[in-house]
Amino acid sequence: MNNIKSRRSTVKGVKGRPKKTKKGIQFAVYIYRILKHIHKDIGMSNKAMAIMNSMVQDVFERISTETSQLVAFTKRSTITANDVLTATRLLLPGELSKHATSEGTKAVKNYGQSVKGSE
What family, per the record (predicted)? Predict the structure, then answer.
């Protein structure tokens, strides 16, 4: 019988120690890009970046959960853009939801134009 340990991928140069795998989607690169776009001379510690990453993941998870609940409540099987907008309006308070929906709509519009232009 083959040894299971020998089939695992290991860290380069260290025998027997399995690689660490990333859990979930990481947004640190994008958060850093936005920070540098807004404030070129300001940095961010690893701990602060981990907190920001966790916050973005939490907001995305809440929006997706609320959206899926809305779709299930209306007995449909397809999530539409309006479902995501409604979930965002329900989750985020006042002015923040207005900004989030307008920026999201603008991003989707820009993406659609870039895809259309590349064809």
Answer: Belongs to the histone H2B family.
